[in-house]
Amino acid sequence: GAVVSQHPSWVICKSGTSVKIECRSLDFQATTMFWYRQFPKQSLMLMATSNEGSKATYEQGVEKDKFLINHASLTLSTLTVTSAHPEDSSFYICSASADNYGYTFGSGTRLTVV
Amino acid sequence: AQTVTQSQPEMSVQEAETVTLSCTYDTSESDYYLFWYKQPPSRQMILVIRQEAYKQQNATENRFSVNFQKAAKSFSLKISDSQLGDAAMYFCAYASGTYKYIFGTGTRLKVLA
Questions:
Q1: DSSP output for chain A
Q2: From first to last of its 114 residues, what are the pLDDT tens digits of chain A?
């Protein structure tokens, strides 16, 4: 079945630094990937749509300069949290679709900014 | 705008019994998809079942089935013969042509031994 790999699974960084999260479709090509954010005991909130070869589309209220998305190939999208602050601490999840059945999610990345 | 509502923050079921999780949604579109995802403590999102709006027949996947009432905009999940491994957060999700998911707030399912 379709597998989406997300790395790292958890990361701790210092306030003011940047951290990159990778999302890879391992056995299929994905022209579109999605990035979500999930706060503790809350639902998933869509942050942006990552399109291969073009600029990402951000949801209202998401700072595009803080959350940089690059979808340089059909199997890789990256989310870079720039100048991270403690309020950016959260669980970030990506998803991609191999077919029209539904989207497969990565295993998520727990980001802690100290 | 589309919305998804899960009115049950938490549900409990005895092992081997049946439980139904509720989900309602609002949309003005006629063509869309509905999903139930399971999120165990590992936080990995796992697709449980999917329903195409144009299909009148309710989807089933082994012990999981849905009751899709399009006119009422209701999409409930029934879990039969509940197992300890079914304990998790369950999210109802809506997606239209762009496949941008809109998630409900989730229902935490506890399975009692």
A1: ---EEEE-SEEEE-TT--EEEEEEESSS--SEEEEEEE-TTS-EEEEEEEETTS--EEPTT--TTTEEEEEEETTEEEEEE-S--GGG-EEEEEEEESSSS-EEE---EEEEE-
A2: 788 999 999 999 999 999 999 999 998 888 889 999 998 888 999 999 988 888 899 999 999 999 999 998 889 999 999 999 999 999 999 999 776 667 889 999 999 999
Contact criterion met (CB < 8 Å) for A42 and B105: yes
Q: Do A91 and B43 touch (CB under 8 A)?
A: yes
Contacts of A57 in chain B (CB under 8 A): none
Nearest CA in chain A to B34: A102
